[in-house]
Amino acid sequence: MERELSTQEVADRLGVKPETVYAYVSRGLLTSRRSGTGRGSVFDAKEVEAVARKRRPVSGSPNGVAGITVRTAITLIESDRYYYRGVDAVTLARRYRFEDVAGWLWTGMLTEGVDFAPAQAALTAARNAVTALPAGRGLLDVLRVATVAAAVADPLRFDLTTETVHASARSLIGTLVAAIPVQGPADGTSPPDDAAVAANLGYRLAPGQPDPAMSRCLDAALVLLIDHDLAASTFAARVAASARANPYAVVSAALGALEGPLHGAASSGAHRMLAEALDQGSAATVVAEHLREGRRIPGLGHRLYPREDPRAELLLEIVAGWPAAEAATRMAREIAATAAARAPLYPNIDMALAVLSVSAGMPPDAGECIFAIARTVGWIAHALEEYDERPLRMRPSGQYTGPKPPQPIPG
Questions:
Q1: Beta pairing partners, 5
Q2: Active-site positions?
Q3: Are the CB atoms for 402 and 255 separated by under 8 Å?
Q4: Do the Cβ atoms of 385 and 394 come closer than 8 Å?
Q5: Element (H, E) at 4
Q6: Over 60: is that where the pLDDT of 126 sits?
């Protein structure tokens, strides 16, 4: 029998806290089982070693990619909190609009009162492109197509001066929101295209007229999701910017990475699970079904936050004040409590987005859409930083593992 490790031994091997080991289990990175003595969980030593190898940086590279050090002054994650340019992100989400905090990330100044109105040519092109999409397209498909269309309509897209990038980014975000078909009131009314991003997004993702409480929830979610250090999509954005891609191409590159099921698409699974639990009236039944089928419980745990995800804490707090979200909030807490009966697990931002989207009657991929709109601000902030670095520095060296040449020509 292969050697088995206790939770503490795994924590020591990986250099993390025991709580983080349980978070790895919740995210499917490790597999645990009850020990034969019934005293705690045990882990396969080979699987733990494989995780350790993946976590080990390449020699001489703090970021794990040989030859690349990413300097950034945008976001710091530390001690279960995270900060935008040194200011607590949760505090910013409590006090300021999404548009204001975008200015903080881009310039280091809070730009209150600035709107994100789309350029008319870009919006027309984006809407025409979205209309041409086949049935069954998702919200991220809409955003990707709208980004390309807006780029083609902007003759200044290759101008990488800071002021022009800011203007292009504001117009692009406004275009992305306004290009989403309206799901709002039956009479077809919708806010003007230059309305606040959160209010405009509410009309387009939820049926019925969005009330101020829902708009407040959306605005907080957008601020909380603006950036989160070098996530996969953000690194993709920086690679594109390193090659001096224009802002639209930077966002396109990031959207491609975002669609992965382990990144931006994670909230869709949490939405479906929460909706199913509400339909059945039982958190325990849904959790048991996920575990029986070998699926991890979506919306719980985060590898960077051994305890509560601060983004989820605030968003769930704000959503709890919205009467329409009472049932979904209660069920999300029941799911977390059921899943954490033997190991500490806490709701993450995907679960908080699920509570918001389910309560508002939004489609399952609404959380992905909110994530993408918000993160566009962060991608542009990172692109602006990368434009000031040496071009093409995001170029790791490949380690060839194929057959040694010369090889015979295939016949």
A1: 43
A2: 302, 350
A3: no
A4: no
A5: strand 4-6
A6: yes
